[in-house]
Amino acid sequence: MGLSIKGKLLLFALCISLMPIATITILYYFNTRNFIKQDELDDIAAIAESEKDHVIAFLEFKKARTSDFSTDGLIREKLETITYGRKYKAIENLNKHLSTNKKPLDTSILEIVVLDTDGRVVAATNEALIGLNMSGHEAFTQAIHKEVGECFTGQPRYSTEFNTDCIYISAPVITSNGNGEVVGVIINVYEPEMLDDIADIAEKKDAYRRLQL
């Protein structure tokens, strides 16, 4: 049995009254979804920016470490001695100094190598590297022309010299007599995972900060 004219009119009126509600509901849904999506994108962008800042600050700290090593009195003294031909004992002492006194200061260092002005490894935490020619390596070619306190930082990549993925930070070693003469280059070889660690720390800090808001 069909609806009466009165029933049809009531149904029509009900549909008309529900249309604005349905429209508002749909608009609210899409606006809310876009807002949440934008909020999530903003959070991701903020996390990425924060992680970038943390990584930059972290690398600056590692550069400061390398620069500090390059001005170490014993390293400069022994490298000068090696450069001027009195090699054997100086190399032995420098290898020991790098392994015993310098490398333990930073657990993310894989190796420390010291090169002469020809780009040849004259001392290292891994003595098997002594004699290796790195004259064409960017860690040497970029650092040899730097000023005191300046460093070169390479991109994370696989190293055939060390047979592993790593990051190089290198700095010139200047004579201690004040004439500014470069007597070699020191390279700190870092494991790239250190960047993952600092990124994880940054993300946890940001998550904690958002919880406090």
TrEMBL record:
The keyword Transmembrane helix applies. GO terms for molecular function: kinase activity. Keywords: Kinase, Membrane, Transferase, Transmembrane, Transmembrane helix. InterPro entries: Sensor-like_sf. The chain crosses the membrane at residues 9-30. It comes from the Bacteria. SUPFAM superfamilies: Sensory domain-like. This is Two-component sensor kinase. It comes from Candidatus Scalindua rubra. The lineage of its organism: Bacteria, Pseudomonadati, Planctomycetota, Candidatus Brocadiia, Candidatus Brocadiales.
